[in-house]
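task queued by scheduler; priority normal; single chain, no ligands, no partner chains; default sampling; output format set to structure tokens
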Amino acid sequence: MNVKELDKIYRKLDFRIIPALWCLYFLTSFGSSAYGLTLTMNSEVGHSLGQHLHLTPKNISTASALYYVGYIIFDVPMNLIMTKVSPQSWLSRIVITVGLVYTCYHVLQSSGALIACRFISGMVGAGTWPGMSYYISLWYPNERSTRRIGYYFTAAQISAAVAGLVSAGFQKMDGVRGYTGWQWMYLVYGVITIAVGISLLWWLPDRPFKEPTDSPNKLIQLYHKFLTPPHPLNDKEKELHRKDLEHRYKLLKWTWKDVIDVITDLRIWPLIIMYFGVVGTGFGLAVFGSTIIATNNPNLTSIQVSLLYAPIWLFDLAGILIITPFADKFKRLRALIFSLACLVIMCGMFVTTFARGSWNKYGGLLIAGFGLGPTVPICMSWTAEIFGPRYGDVGTAVSAALVSGLGNLGSVTATYALYSGWPADKKRLFRNSNMMLVVMLGASIIASVVCHLLRNRVRQQK
């Protein structure tokens, strides 16, 4: 098969699919970063989220943790549904409901309401990350997937950076029409997210190879008539694309036994531990990065803290763009590349913790951000590579959801047990919380080595 022709086809798909997934992930990620920033917005005048709702440290850590509990509980069932329905409609549904829930944040009046909203936010957003990984596996072979995952994963970093910049602007609106700055930010963000979610119904293409539907149900007929976007490829390109992905489109029908087989495959657990450490660190810095900056340098204003938060995620973006292409090119070295990235994060956390001077500590956060970039894309593409060939459609969907869902226990640990959940650690400039993240990253490195050793020794392809 002509490699140049295939490259042209995948570039054509990139122009249609990657921008849509990028916008999807940008908006669904923005809420997490915004939540962390609202804890410090307009704090000088007593108008931060915590001050406005009279939150205790336990309230903040509980609300943060329950967000990830929603993901953990619902990631697998949400992704299983996606294997049975139109994937672009399901991803659109996720974005619309995330927008609806975040729009409601601007009317919060109590800690109980915040805790409930955080859990619901996690529930409606469940399946986002594994769903996008599953969607990419429908359109791209594994040797092309890590880079694509990295492309749209940059949206999380850009959204975190933009959240820092945008929050600085919204703090200038504090008091307009009786709303605080963070209330304005949630309201505007929610409305934009709903609008983009609706547009995804026509923006994202459906499955690449879909059998025609002759259902007598008029609602289904209307759905396919108005909500099935045109295929991005012409007939010749579709045939070449089909031949390149023939190995992917096997075992499309599944039973609950197949789901249990994936769950009991030993190889899933090292991947979960890998994800546990890097996502725990990533979300710990995403939610409490601004808190760490403010604690290390108490002389900064809340607007300055928001502006300093943004570059962490620009360094993360640089890590993705520089390193993920090597993970695709050298697939056999994924464990090594992942481990080296984790060591960079650990180096950054040591600098943040033990360097002298607030600006040196801030430099450590930038180093950690760079290392974080490629770790999650490597986890997800490696998961699809291991589980797709043997288990087919259900293997790709369930393994991605398990790695994302159970791996988010790392996020719960970082947001509930550490930082705000450990008030005494603030006096130590979060030294112990930072070091616990280093321990989690060490576990991720060990897990990547175990995964490398097990990947061809357990339950080989049927």
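post-processing summary
- DSSP finds 18 helices and no strands in the chain.
- The first helix runs from residue 3 to 38.
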